[in-house]
Amino acid sequence: MKKRICFLFTLLLTSLLFGCGSNAETADNSASAQTADTAKPLVVAMELAYPPFETRDDAGEPSGVSVDLMKAFGEYCGREVKIENTAWDGLIPSLQTGSADIVISSMTITEERKKLIDFSDPYANALLAILANADSDINSIDDFNQAGKVLAVKSGSTGHMYAEKNLPDTELLVMPDESACVTEVAQGRADGFIYDQLTIYRNWQNNPDTTKAVFIPFQDVEKWGIAVQKGNQELLDQINAFLADFQKEGGYEDLTEKYLSEEKKAFDELNFQWFFDMKE
Question: C-alpha distances in angstroms, 168 versus 41, 53, 218?
Answer without folding.
Answer: 45, 31, 16
